[in-house]
Amino acid sequence: MAHPHEHDDVPAPLGPPGPVVGTEWLAEHLGDPRLVLVDASSTLNRTDEAIPGALLLDLDGPFADPSSGLPHTMPPAGRLTAAARALGISRTSTVVAYDGKGLFAAARVWWMLRAAGFERVAVLDGGLPAWTAEGRPAGPHADPPAEPGDVELVPREGFFVGADDVARALEDPGAAVLDARSAGRFAGTEPEPRPGLRPGHMPGAVSLPYTELQRPDGRLLPPALLRERVAAAAPEGRRIVTTCGSGLTACVLALGAHLAGREDVAVYDGSWSEWGRPGPRPVEGPA
Predict the structure, then answer these.
(1) Would you state the pLDDT for residue 9?
(2) Active site residue: 244, 251, 265, 267, which one?
(3) Which domains does the chain have, with CATH numbers?
(4) CA-CA distance, 68 to 65, in Å (whole number)?
(5) Per-residue pLDDT tens over the stretch 112-133
């Protein structure tokens, strides 16, 4: 039997107020040992400038599955756990993720950790641009801690789906497949950034560019507007599958849907990087 005072020196976990935190909340808690702040900027948007104390979280490195043949797919439990521990993430940590574009890749960290059973994770609304626009300090990234964390991450069913699940969802009147890419890429009139992919979209998918869930400054729309935008693309009662170019901004749609009160949401991990390859999967291209 534990002594009544045995755990008195263990601090209570720091709970974020929701899946999204503002710059004021973060400024107030910077330096708290329970907080692990990560810069999840994709290689497209990465800079040397960081919020003080931020660690670089590489969604193309340890937080990806190199054996998948696709960009930044969800790694197996052991690799994900090791990557998180190397950043000092423990069972009692609170993780806040941000990125250099405002909101582009950070939602991927939120989704991955929740998919692996870790709920104390949030996204910084507006990311680094919102932070620096307020004149807040920035500097180099912090070095990973000498002492690894002790978190145990075990992927749960239903958060990520594969191409066959998406094909079934496209045929299911009770489901909606939402594509986060730009309207031009959806239509096939803008080139895909990755070579070798077919232009266009999945027949039956609905275009909802991830930028349509954001204000011009990169912050998310207020909940009432999020509900409106999400419901216009996926009427209430339908389960939602989100997709994009490579599984990053699909997580922005998943975050928006979650904030809009939609719980039956999954992310297609392979996204267009898989579906758009030459092969048997149907594609609706430019007229």
Answers:
(1) 59
(2) 244
(3) 20-133 (3.40.250.10), 160-275 (3.40.250.10)
(4) 6
(5) 999 999 999 999 999 999 999 9
Arithmetic mean of pLDDT over the chain: 94
CB-CB contact of 172 with 256 (8 Å): no
* Structure tokens belonging to residue 145: 């801690």
Active site residue 244: yes
What confidence tier does 83 reach under pLDDT thresholds 50, 70, 90? Answer: very high
Asked if 71 contacts 64 with a C-beta cutoff of 8 angstroms, the reply is yes
Structure tokens at 283: 């594609």
- Amino acid identity, residue 124? L
Task: Decide if pLDDT at 44 tops 80.
Answer: no
Mean pLDDT, rounded, for 50-59:
97
pTM equals 0.95
